[in-house]
Amino acid sequence: MSTRISRKTTRRWAMRSALCLNLTALAVFTVLSAGYPVQALAQEAATQINLPAQSLDDSLIQLGRQTSLQFFYTPDTVAGVQAPRVQGRMTPEEALKRLLEGTSVEYRREGRNVTLSRLLSTTQLGAVKVVGGRGDLPPAYAGGQVATGGRVGLLGTKDVMETPFNTISYTDAFIQDIQAQDLGRVISLTDPSVYKNGATGMISDNFSIRGFSISGGDVAFGGLYGLIPYYRVTPELAERIEVLKGPSALLNGMPPGGSVGGSINIVPKHAGEEPLARVTGTYMSDAQFGTHVDVGRRFGDDNQFGIRFNGVYRDGDSPVDNQTQSSKLASLGLDWRSDRVRLSADMYTNEDHVDGLNRGVSLAPGIDVPRPPDPDVLLAPDWTFSNTKDRAVILRGEVDITRDITAYAAWGKSKTDFDSLASSTYTIFNDAGDYRNNFAHQRSIFDRDSAEIGLRSRFRTGSVGHELAVTATYYKHTNQFGFLRNMMAEDWVTNIYDPAWGPTVGAGFSSEPLPKTGAVRSNSYGVADTLSFAEDRVQLTLGVRRQTVVSDTFDAASGDRTARYDAGATTPAVALLVKANDSLSIYGNYIEGLSQGATAPATAENAGEVFPPYKTKQREIGLKMDFGRFAGVLSAFQIARPNAYTDPVSNVYSFGGEQRNRGVELSFYGEAAKGLRLMGGIAYTQAKLTKTAGGVDQGKLATAVPAWQAKLGAEWDVPAVQGLTLTGNMVSMSKQYINADNSLSVPGRTVFDLGARYMTSIADHPLTLRATVQNLTNKAYWAGSLASGTGAPRTFLLSASLEY
């Protein structure tokens, strides 16, 4: 044990020495920025301007806040016009000229009043171009936290008001401002449809959408499954994080892990029109430091070629006692474009490591749920660990055959190497909180290939418009696996309130060769047509996808194939959207999800029977409201997912079980008032077991699904201090059952975060300082199921981003 501690101590000192530059930089940034005076808003002299690439409408509003200028224009004047990033010290009028350069918008100034108008000459309009940001992505909505649209599978990129599903797309700015270190925090912080247990330092991210868990391996990267880091996503990899709620077999095909609650797509980072060079230093309590470098620019006479590099290094002690975490990411995005062709290549290597692996507890029969220990208590030894290494490459090409026909193809390959020594027995056996522990060593290697080819076209038949999409996808993975269980001869006994641990369990299994134990191959073919009527205000989407799956299992000792699963299924979908006016869309959909079926076990009457992929069916209706700068979605849904069991009377194995989730969701985002941004909502989900084996627990509610969730994130720009923004967040939820008969539950909880952000400059270089306190009251709670352990303790986050 002493050798382990010595090695760990040496490692920490080396890490802290290597990262002391980041701490110094944070201090220097803070001291220097404190010395910069804030210019009076009415002053016409040069002042610090900080405007991100966004819609011209948003830039003008923010420029009005940062200067004395007051703008007058109609919505048509700025509709569809993008503005570039404008940052640095300049006069207000110089900033305005930069915003309007290359557009068809002109201005007339009288004192502090500026009137904008649109040039009407066809020659001038033909010269309009989109500048700033990613031209292939929908612009950010008011407030900059979410986008006005996103990718909707084979339907392509759609505006949120013309999408007949409940979707949201988070921007890179939002990811940076909340200082997210994992994917779960991004998608669960303000969305009441998403549940995250709150635990940190586990093997993988754990979250669910609409009451159904989402496997980390089912997150797409650039639209393809199997290419994202398998257990935990480093958010700095993403330009956008797109979430579609509910099943999506037609839109995206069957995910490898069969997740049905929703689909998530990570949009890789590519260079924008404006050069970018940003360095961010980070700190997380107890003593974790990090650096993020983000560099991108375009080259060529018409900026045809782009390159974007992101590098991340974080390491150190987490807020949980005796736990350390580290993340390493290097990603590169290359792209080339012409008038009709777009090519891109994205590649990354990622490492995620935890020492002191959070694993939670279970309860012996007859034991009530104990009060949780202090949130900084680690319920496992510090010598438990998980180590995941991922690398991937993805190539994509698009060509506009005509103005209305686009063909595309993509291919990607990835590899994951996972190694973990974790608790395998963690059972509380008395009311005092004493519990037994034993440990297991698990290793996996995944090799994955993923590909997609398709075509999208637009045409009309009489008064009916069509957006026709066809696609074919391919996915394959092989798995090598090894597992050692109960590595201690006798269980170790300790107490959850003051755990003490014995000698280190050996980890020599990390270097053993692994046998091939499984292989999966799937193909799908899909077609969908969106028909538009009544001047495109009524849109009907019809589609169908055929999916086949072949799964092989191999004997670990001999390498012989021991079982084969070969089945397929066809999934239809229909969706209707009616644009009542420019501010209100009404939508409804029926869509199915697919999960790989199973083979009846040898003990069943129908042993060996192969079941096709089972279908999860969703029915949903909703309203989407856009008030110009503030938007919301109200939806009601029902999702029915089959479950497999062996009937206790007939001994026949079948998919005769069912869990039915019904819910109502209200979510909102945008700028509720000048300088006030709100994002959040409230959701009610009834996750009921409607069909069970022998009727046991039928009618009970599913575990780890809170019936109610309410969330609110707020940002307020302090009028008296230019550049200062105060932030806050609340997550509140009802109790969650932890056993099938609903006799045990963990209480609901409300957790608060508080923070601030300050934007200034150093020597004309934009600087953003951020500070956040998560779990402000240091609330102790069980994280949804006892096996997830406790939620994270009070955590302090600091960061400083400097652009060159």
Describe this structure in words.
There is one protein chain. By secondary structure, the chain is mainly beta. It is 10% helix and 52% strand. It contains 8 helices and 42 strands. β33 and β34 form a beta hairpin. α2 (56-66) runs antiparallel to α4. It is globular, with a radius of gyration of 27 Å. Mean pLDDT is 89; it is low at 1-43 and 121-133.
Task: Please tag this protein with its features.
4-stranded mixed beta sheet, Phage tail protein beta-alpha-beta fold, Maltoporin, Chain A, disordered N terminus, 804 residues, 22-stranded antiparallel β-barrel, mainly beta, 2 domains
Write the layout of secondary structure elements.
Blueprint: H1 2-34, E1 47-51, E2 54-55, H2 56-66, E3 70-72, H3 75-78, E4 82-83, E5 86-90, H4 92-100, E6 105-110, E7 113-118, H5 122-126, E8 149-151, E9 157-159, E10 167-171, H6 172-177, H7 183-188, E11 194-196, E12 207-209, E13 212-213, E14 220-221, E15 238-245, H8 249-252, E16 262-268, E17 276-284, E18 287-299, E19 305-317, E20 324-337, E21 341-355, E22 362-363, E23 385-402, E24 405-428, E25 434-461, E26 464-484, E27 492-495, E28 516-533, E29 538-554, E30 561-581, E31 584-595, E32 614-626, E33 630-646, E34 653-673, E35 676-691, E36 708-717, E37 724-733, E38 736-737, E39 745-746, E40 749-762, E41 765-774, E42 795-803
Helix pairs in contact: 2-4
